[in-house]
Structure formats: C-alpha cells, structure tokens
Amino acid sequence: MEDYPEYIIGERISGEGEKWYYVKWVGCDLEDNTWETEEKMKVEWPAALKKYKKDVENRTLKRYQIPKQNPLLEETVFNYTNSVKDWELEISSIDYVEKSKIPGLIVYIQWKNGLKSVHHSSEVYMKCPQKMIEYFEQFAKFNEIFDED
User: Fold this and answer.
1) Distances from the Cα of 144 to the Cαs of 69, 132, 141, 147, in angstroms?
2) How far is the C-alpha of 13 from the C-alpha of 17, rounded, in Å?
3) What is the C-alpha separation between 13 and 147, in angstroms, rounded?
4) Cβ neighbours of residue 110 under 8 Å, at least 6 residues apart?
5) Which among 4, 22, 97, 128 could bridge 9 via Cys, Cβ 3.0 to 4.6 Å?
6) What is each CA distance from 26 to 45, 53, 65, 133, 148, in whole angstroms?
7) Closest C-alpha among 134, 124, 96, 93 to residue 9
8) pLDDT tens-digit profile of 109-148?
C-alpha cells in the first residue's frame, strides 16, 4: 500500500530557499507527519499540493510563516529575547504551536516591537505561562452548564 497525504498542514522555506510541506498521512498518527520537498510533492502527489495551495488562497486567517532571516536579524532577535525581563508584558501573541521532535512543543512568538522568534515550550512555559494559557484557551470548547431547579 502506498502512502498518500491526508492533508498538508503547513509549509516552510529552508535556508537554501527550498520549499518544504508538512504532511499528515492517511491512516497515520500525527507523530508520523513528515516534511516533504515541493519537488517531491509536485511529482508524487500533485493533487494534494494543488488542494493545499487552493485552501491557503481561500483562507481568511493568514498562517504564521517564519520569515527568512539574515544573520544580523537573528542576532538582534536573540539579543532582544535574552534581554527581556518580563515576557508576559513584551509578547504581543503566540501565533502558532507545533509538536517538536524532542519532547515538548515549538512555539512561534510575535513580540510587541515587531520581531518574531521561535522557542521550545519549556522556555515559554517558564517565562510567560499566562500567554501559553491564553493561546490554548482559543481552542478550548466548553459545554454549557445548566442549573437544574
């Protein structure tokens, strides 16, 4: 049986400028998701790639994308994030969270000064736990509680 993409979760561009797609496979668990090159997607699963691109076009909410950063900007972000005393006050939002290959999560942060950074969840939970709670609360669904008289 040949593997087939159930859907494409997201995309990124490597440091070499190559586009990669994060793929959820039919019949596989989320931990089996893989990154596949655009070239491979075009050759082996063009219909899945076409659907993903159409879905992205139709989306009203823009997904967080990691900007291509030059070394000077990376150093600026690194120095800034290490100088911030209270992350809760300086973070504008947590834009996206994804599973990490090591235990924990990868957290994509938008800072109030316009910088973007990526951190492991262990650091984010220590430095701004309330922001993580606010992020996850966006996705929580609660049942209504009815008073029985």
Assistant:
1) 45, 24, 10, 10
2) 6
3) 52
4) 64, 91, 92, 93, 94, 95, 116
5) 22
6) 13, 19, 25, 31, 44
7) 96
8) 999 999 988 889 899 999 999 999 999 988 888 778 777 6
104 with 120: CB under 8 angstroms? yes
**In this structure, what token pair is assigned to residue 96?**
């996206």
Q: Which residues contact 69 (CB under 8 A, 6 or more apart)?
A: 77
By C-alpha distance, which of 23, 24, 25, 3 is closest to 11?
23
Q: What is the 3-state secondary structure (H, E, C) of 28-64?
A: CCHHHCEEEEHHHHHHHCHHHHHHHHHHHHHCCCCCC
What residues contact 136, with CB distance under 8 A and at least 6 apart? none
SS3 of residue 26 by DSSP:
coil
Prediction pTM value = 0.50
Q: Contacts by 105-110 with C-beta closer than 8 Å and gap 24+?
A: 107/132, 108/64, 108/66, 110/64
Does an H or E element contain 73, and which? helix 71-83
